[in-house]
Specification:
binds BIS(adenosine)-5'-tetraphosphate, 190 residues, 10 helices
């Protein structure tokens, strides 16, 4: 199985690029953000809980997120592999993912990290707010909180994969096509 973690700060383009990667390589897309948003829309208990964190730009608690991810993973039938988009976002999630994948007889091949400067992130999220209707995109304070949470809680996950020699940084500035090509080149070399 080809299992890839697509990593990067809020608004780096993880969702945008995941769509293209799954299409080319036939992988299954597991986006924790998308799954939470679907639950919010469906007004499930999980959705209500997730909304109370997401609207403030905070992370949903690890225990809830890990359980949800594992359950979605198990739903996939004969997958060639997975793109983990927006997960893991903490070291505890990274460790849980390793343990879980190992119990399923597989592992993470690589973390591809999109590198995008903070100013550009703010611009992209501001633009997306005009069309997405996402509460967490609409408020500059919430955006700043997401960026701060990323630096404090999510960035350390990079070290986790660096230590395992599974970390590749990709320049995330440029057109969507340019970045896709960089990602494809990195994946083809694996
Ligand atoms: P996510 O849904 O993961 O969203 P994101 O980080 O904001 O966006 P992404 O990087 O996917 O950006 P996109 O491609 O859309 O998380 C939302 C929230 O869910 C979190 O804050 C948290 O509360 C919760 N959550 C999710 N996972 C969790 C976890 N594991 N643990 C705990 N909580 C979790 O791109 C952004 C915009 O940029 C788009 O409008 C796009 O069109 C544009 N864009 C993309 N590429 C571009 C380019 N090259 N040039 C210009 N614009 C570009």
């Amino acid at each position: 199985m080809l299992n890839i973690v697509l990593f990067g700060p809020p608004g780096a383009g993880k969702g945008t690029q995941s769509e293209r990667i799954i299409e080319k390589y036939g992988l299954k897309h597991l986006s924790t953000g998308d799954i939470f948003r679907a639950n919010i829309k469906g007004e499930t208990e999980l959705g209500k809980l997730a909304k109370s964190y997401m609207d403030k730009g905070q992370l949903v608690p690890d225990e809830v997120t890990i359980k949800m991810l594992q359950s979605e993973f198990k739903k996939a039938e004969n997958p060639k592999g997975f793109i983990f988009d927006g997960f893991p976002r903490t070291n505890a999630q990274a460790e849980a993912l390793d343990n879980f994948l190992s119990s399923e007889g597989t592992s993470i091949k690589v973390m591809l990290a999109l590198d995008v400067a903070e100013e550009e992130l703010r611009e992209r999220l501001k633009k997306r707010a005009e069309v997405s209707g996402r509460v967490d995109d609409a408020n500059p304070e919430v955006i700043q909180n997401r960026i701060n949470v990323y630096k404090a809680e999510t960035l350390p996950v990079k070290e986790y994969y660096l230590k395992q020699d599974k970390f590749i940084e990709i320049d995330g500035i440029g057109t969507v096509d340019e970045i896709t090509n960089r990602l494809f080149t990195a994946i083809d070399k694996l």
